[in-house]
Design a protein that fits this description.
alpha/beta; 11 helices; 232 residues; 6 strands; six-stranded parallel beta sheet
Length: 232
C-alpha cells in the first residue's frame, strides 16, 4: 500500500534540502514537497493554500514539517483536513524559540543579518553541525542564497511572532516530534511547550544538529516510516 507524505520545508522554503531524506524513505512512500516563493514574503496564513493544494483530500497522508514550517503545519492540521492521518514536527515550535530581550534584538537585527552572505562556519555552527560535509554546507548555502534577503528576514520575524498553541490544542491526529539533541537554534523548551498542550505527543530524540533530515536521513526516514505505519 502506498504511503503519502506532504513535506513542508525549513526557512529557505525551496524544499531542495529534502533530497536525501526522500531517497532514504522505503519504496512504498511517495512525497509531495511544498515550495514557497523565493521573491515575495507570504505569512503563515498566506501559505495555507499552498499546503491545501498539495494535500489531496481523496488520499490519506501524513504532514511532515521542518523547523520554520511547524507553526504552519499546526495551523493547517487544526482545520481537520480530510484524510490527514498524522503530523510530524521536526525541530519544531509552537511559540517563538527566542524569548525576552533576545527576541527584540533578533527582530531589529534581522534585516541586516540576512543581507550578509552566509559563512560556512555559521552553517556548521547553527544548522548542520561541525562534521557536516562540504557538499551539505554548499547545498544549504545555495538554498538560502536563492531566497531574497527581505523574504528571509520577514520569515524570521514571523517565527519570532508566532503562537499556535490554540491551534495545536485543536489537532485530532497523532503527532510525532523529532527532537535534535544537538540543536543550537531550537531549545528543549519548545518541545516542552508543545507537550504542555499535547502531552500525548510521541517524541523521538535523535543525536544530531538542527538539520536532522539532512544529517540523519536514514534514521529520520526510519522513525517517520514507523510512525506512519503505526498510525491508523
Amino acid at each position: 500500500m502506498r504511503q503519502r507524505l506532504v513535506l513542508l520545508p525549513g526557512m529557505d522554503g525551496t524544499g531542495n534540502l529534502f533530497a536525501d531524506f526522500v531517497e532514504a524513505l522505503p519504496d512504498e512512500f511517495e512525497t509531495e514537497i511544498v515550495r514557497y516563493p523565493t521573491d515575495v514574503f507570504r505569512s503563515y496564513l498566506d501559505l495555507l493554500p499552498l499546503v491545501n493544494s498539495a494535500s489531496q483530500p481523496s488520499e490519506p497522508y501524513v504532514l511532515v514539517a521542518e523547523s520554520f514550517s511547524t507553526p504552519l503545519a499546526i495551523q493547517y492540521a487544526a482545520t481537520c483536513p480530510p484524510n490527514l492521518k498524522g503530523l510530524v514536527l521536526c525541530a519544531g515550535f509552537t511559540t517563538s524559540p527566542v524569548q525576552g530581550w533576545r527576541r527584540i534584538l533578533s527582530s531589529l537585527l534581522s534585516p541586516v543579518l540576512f543581507r550578509l552572505p552566509l559563512p560556512s562556519f555559521i552553517v556548521r555552527l547553527l544548522l548542520a553541525g561541525s562534521t557536516a560535509s562540504p557538499a551539505l554546507v554548499a547545498a544549504v548555502k545555495a538554498a538560502i542564497s536563492s531566497v531574497q534577503s527581505v523574504v528571509l528576514s520577514a520569515r524570521f520575524r514571523a517565527v519570532l511572532g508566532c503562537d499556535t498553541r490554540a491551534e495545536l490544542a485543536q489537532i485530532a491526529v497523532p503527532i510525532l516530534y523529532l527532537q535534535a539533541m544537538r540543536d543550537r537554534l531550537i531549545p528543549p523548551s519548545c518541545l516542552e511547550a508543545i507537550q504542555r498542550v499535547k502531552p500525548e505527543t510521541v517524541v523521538s530524540a535523535i543525536d544530531g544538529p538542527h538539520l536532522l533530515f539532512q544529517r540523519e536521513p536514514l534514521q529520520t526516514a526510519d522513525v517517520v516510516a514507523r510512525f506512519v505505519h503505526q498510525t491508523p
